[in-house]
Amino acid sequence: MTSIESSPHPLAFKVGNTAEIRLGDPLAGDEIRITTAARAIEGMQKEALVREGPGGTVWRMVSDEGPYLNGTDLAPFPLAFFTAGMASCYVSEILAQAARRRIDVRGLGLVLDNFYTMEGSALRGDMTGGALPPEATAYVDTGADQEAVDDLVRAAVTASAASALLREPLISRFALVRNGDPVPLDQVKPLEGVPAPDPAPAFEVAVPADVSAYLPGIIEKLETAPTVFDPEGGAGSSLQAEQKRLLHVRGICKVRPDGIKACKVQLFKPIGSVFRFLSDEPAGSGGAGQAPSGLAYLSAGIAFCFLTQIGRYAHIVKQHVDGYRVLQESAFGRAGALGKAQPIATHVYLDLSGPEDLAQTMVRMGEQTCFLHATCRLELEPRLRVSRDAMPA
Q: Reduced to 3 states, what is the DSSP secondary structure of residue 29?
């Protein structure tokens, strides 16, 4: 696949030939490992293969950018994947905690607002992405008293793997391969050992499973962003070499009667289109594996965002890259009532005629400007609210 437009497939599907997609072991003891292979395709579009769950299910999904990055806006932007995944993780954990506490939850939804910053100059090399504490409101329909519901939501958010990425500084680690040859890294924390094999061949062989194995319309575009002309949200505005801006992403996640989580996500600032994600837990982990889990979406979002920043930096400094891909490993678990996460490990593959030091700088600037690697390296405490009111539309 060279572009989303040229693909006959939906924006997300379950891969049928998983034996041919070697992306690592999804389980390691009590940890859940999510392995994400992602590559840049046409323009600002990206494609990912995400392996998750006890059975090693592989999901294929695509990402795009809106007009602010001169994207075609055909698929969700990277931060939408992370927000949908985070909201789904919180909702799943609330339901699991409610079942353990024998609290009857008749209805459940969550509104999640994520905020990110970008400031500095790409040409000077000091442009840096940042993240602010997320704000979440849980809408819980139950007969339990308010104190029990408040405690339920707090405990669930604390136990969630999504919160583990926010709780303590997690410094991402990287390995770099340029034109097939390993390159040492000293501007970011390096991964020890030999870089993993290039995942490029996996994209060429992945085919969809039978349509009965997953839900239709796992990812869909609901509304197109209106055209705007102001400098902050206009076409190409996020490609400027100098930046000082705030991004706001909202996700609204509801539990359907069949137990599937439906998350509607929109970029509020700069203005963006609305996309809908369906999420389910893997078979053997509380769900039927009919759609990607929250952790799968969350992990894909990190990989997509990092790739966007590499492409963005290359555009600003006017350097052509023939191809760029990552193989990203993330691991999550639990220590008692506390969610745990390991630092993200990313193998970067650049097809680049430029010098070795340019490849090294691209990795550094990719990490430095990536909103989601910033989320990992900062300490962010979610701001929680519990409501018994009706869930917003």
A: coil
Q: Please, are residues 77 and 65 in contact by the beta-carbon 8 Å criterion?
A: yes
* pLDDT value of position 231: 45
Alpha carbon distances (Å) from 221 to 40, 44, 137:
20, 17, 24
Position 1 scores a pLDDT of 63
Q: Does residue 216 have a cis bond before it (omega within 30 degrees)?
A: no
Alpha-carbon gap, residue 280 to 295, rounded angstroms: 10
The residues pairing with 49 across neighbouring beta strands, listed in sequence order, are 37, 60
Q: How far apart are CA 67 and CA 228, in angstroms?
A: 9
3-state secondary structure of 240: coil
For residue range 276-318, what is the model confidence (pLDDT) as tens digits?
Answer: 999 999 887 788 999 999 999 999 999 999 999 999 999 999 9
Provide CB contacts within 8 A for 7, sequence distance 6+.
1, 62
Number of H-type helices and E-type strands within the chain: 7, 18
Predicted pLDDT of residue 237: 59
pTM of the model: 0.94
